[in-house]
Amino acid sequence: MANFLQGKHIVLGVTGGIAAYKAAVLTRLLVKAGAEVQPVMTAAAKEFITPLTLSTLSGKPVISEFFTRNTGEWHSHVDLGLWADAMVVAPATACTIGKMAGGVADNMLVTTYLSAKAPVFVCPAMDLDMMAHPSTVANLRRLESYGNIIIDAAEGELASHLTGKGRMAEPEDIVKTLERYFRNAQCPSPLSGRKVMITAGPTREKIDPVRYISNYSTGKMGYALADELAARGADVIVVSGPVSVKPTQPGVKVVGVESALEMAEKSRELFPQCDVAVMCAAVADYRPAAPSATKIKREGNEPPQLQLVENPDIARSLGEMKQDDQLLVGFALETDHENENARKKMQRKKLDMVVLNSLRDAGAGFGTDTNKVTILTRKDNVSHEFPLKSKAEVAGDIADLIELLYCNE
Ligand code: C5P
Predict the structure, then answer these.
(1) Is-catalytic flag, 408?
(2) How many whole angstroms separate alpha carbon 10 and alpha carbon 178?
(3) Can you tell me the distance from the alpha carbon of 397 to that of 395, in angstroms, rounded to the nearest whole number?
(4) What is the DSSP letter of 333?
(5) How many Å apart are CA 336 and CA 210, to the nearest integer?
(6) 3-state secondary structure string, 21-75?
(7) Could you say which DSSP state residue 258 is in?
(8) Ligand 1 touching residue 331 (CB < 6 A)
(9) Cβ contacts of 247 within 8 Å, gap of 6 or more
(10) What would the 3-class secondary structure string for 176-214 be?
(11) What pLDDT tens digit does each residue of the chain (409 aa) get?
(12) In 10 A of CB 141, how many CB atoms?
């Protein structure tokens, strides 16, 4: 694959948070990918990581002040802003985010930001309460409204030893986002600007207010696809059952649903505005016919008999609604006669493409980080077999074939 970071000029703004140590790894990865990195540090950042570390890794003296005190050499933030193909602020503290949002140009980093003509990527990192504060939320929204790209913070253990949202995105993921940005800029995907809906995760079918029927789906495959398609410029919305995964790609919208009926209603509502729909959810085939309004008690009662009724087949109903210019992609998890069953499913549900995984393959299916798929397409009657890969890579293969189908429509 072409290296889209080769020769790119990246201004790396580093601010004063504990995640500043990750700026060293980020610098190293960017340089390794062929980019030229110019670190710009705030005074507070230098309390967390030394300029020597970043200048050694980047091969460029760190810029921090408007001029060098002993020589009087002026550091032009305007030139730096023009030099940059991208500016990345990682970590971005609440303070710097606020200054960027309000144009408080009292340091080299913010003046460079205000002069930058290139896209700006902001990687927030802070404690969970600061992250959730309406001021931070509003400032990030404001940066987005300026066209800046927020690489959202993740949830996990924080420097305060509290657990919550505020961990800076991993350097590897930041590099991936930059690579994808430059790839899209150089060779835009046919999916760029297209509306894509993805169903993901399991559904929960209520037995009573505290119990439900569900399955082992974690949503990993659906969310990996959402990230991949969004990275290719698509406008992605995930209709998601209850999962703990989150999209990592900026701009992916998530609509949470619980039951198959809710998922069906939302999907049918959104589908007419979509160019592509990918049915990745593990929808429960049946639901309790009459869920109890109160908790079913054990004492003195016979075990209850659960009467089940069939849930709507969402993929099939979208297949019925599908217009000629829409693409519908389904998944099939099979245990035997895989290709034959998947092809029948494709006909029955009027799908344009089926991603087949077999439970006979180790590393494929629910909960794993890997998958092994065969992708069948209706139009050309071809089966594309792929080896075991990470779900992110599988998402790339699926996206490639969707692009191909989309071009040939
Ligand atoms: O029929 P089966 O469940 O094997 O079909 C799998 C495909 O159909 C998947 O794409 C799944 O998301 C979709 N499906 C659906 N609604 C259902 C059952 C399956 O959309 N009720």
Answers:
(1) no
(2) 10
(3) 5
(4) E
(5) 35
(6) HHHHHHHHHHHHCCCEEEEEECCCHHHHCCHHHHHHHHCCCCECCCECCCCCCEC
(7) -
(8) yes
(9) 223, 226, 227, 230, 236, 238, 254
(10) HHHHHHHHHHHCCCCCCCCEEEEEECECCEEEECCEEEC
(11) 468 999 999 999 999 999 999 999 999 999 999 999 999 999 999 999 999 999 999 999 999 988 777 777 777 878 888 999 999 999 999 999 999 999 999 999 999 999 999 999 999 999 999 999 999 999 999 999 999 999 999 888 888 888 889 999 999 999 989 998 998 888 888 999 999 999 999 999 999 999 999 999 999 999 999 999 998 999 999 999 999 999 988 889 999 999 999 999 999 999 999 999 999 999 999 999 999 999 998 877 788 889 999 999 999 999 999 999 999 999 998 888 888 999 999 999 999 999 998 777 776 666 678 889 999 999 877 889 999 999 999 999 999 999 988 776 5
(12) 11
Q: What angle is formed at CA 65 by the lines to CA 59 and CA 68, rounded to 5 degrees?
A: 80
Count of CB atoms situated within 10 Å of the CB of 305? 5
Residues in the chain: 409
C-alpha 241 to ligand 1 mean position (Å): 14
Q: pTM of the prediction?
A: 0.72
Extract the tokens encoding 355: 């991603």
CA of 332 to the centre of ligand 1 (A): 7
Ligand 1 atom nearest 329 alpha carbon: 10
Is the beta carbon of 314 within 6 A of some atom in ligand 1? Answer: yes
DSSP state, residue 263: H
For ligand 1, atom 4, the nearest C-alpha belongs to: 332
Catalytic residue among 70, 107, 215, 311: 215
Q: How remote is the CA of residue 315 from the centroid of ligand 1, in Å?
A: 6
Could you tell which of 335, 349, 351, 357 is best to mutate to test the pocket of ligand 1, judged by most ligand atoms within 8 Å of the CB?
349
Give all strands (DSSP E) within 241-282, no chain letters.
253-256, 276-279
Q: Distance between CA 12 and CA 19 in Å, rounded? A: 14
Contact between residue 170 and residue 252 where contact means Cβ atoms under 8 Å apart: no
**Helices vs. strands in the chain: H and E counts, helices first:** 14, 21
Give the CA dihedral 216, 221, 223, 226, nearest 10 degrees: -150
